[in-house]
Amino acid sequence: MIATLDDIEDLFNIFHDGSLVIQDRQSNPQTWKIDCEYLAEMIDPTFNFFYLKVYAVQQLSFEPWFDDTSKEKVAWTGSKLEALDLEILSAKSNEKIIEISGLEDFVDGISGGTLSLLCEKIEIFDQQSQSIPLEDLKVIAEFYWQKKCNAR
């Protein structure tokens, strides 16, 4: 279970280049899918993604980066968020909020944006719904990047 702001920030930074999709925004916890094949296949070569259970979401909004800079910046909330397929670039904490910046290729007129999240805690699961502690995910990511760097 991931409950501190620093750990939630770390979680989304680990998923750099992964694709975030909010699958079930209406429930508590919410279900999010992270397509991050390069890390998932470190657990099992047939895996492509992870699931997140996001508990007690108090704030969730997306501020798009419009291709047309003259457009008025209006944050997306509600069902509009379910259209997102955000390629995670980075995450940072801003007071109690996690700001996840990413690219968006599937919604016309925007190139990306920032997803703002305030929640109580998050759980990580693999493709077969097995819980993964954050520390284990950090080890997996570290191993992947060391292997990649050594291959150069």
Summarize the model shown:
With 152 residues, the chain is of the alpha+beta class. The protein is globular, with a radius of gyration of 15 Å.
Features:
alpha+beta; globular; 152 residues
SSE run: HEEHEEEEEEH
Cα(first) to Cα(last) distance is: 35 Å
* Average pLDDT number: 91
Proportion of residues in extended strands: 35-45%
Number of DSSP helical runs: 3
**Structural Rg:** 15 Å
How would you classify the helix and strand content by structural class?
Answer: alpha+beta
> Could you tell me the number of beta strands?
8
**Large-scale geometry:** globular
- Which strand order does the major sheet show? 4-7-6-5-1-2-3-8
Structural write-up:
There is one protein chain. The chain has 152 residues and is α+β, with helices and mostly antiparallel strands. The chain has one domain. It has 3 helices and 8 strands, in the order αββαββββββα. It has an 8-stranded antiparallel beta sheet. The radius of gyration is 15 Å and the shape is globular.
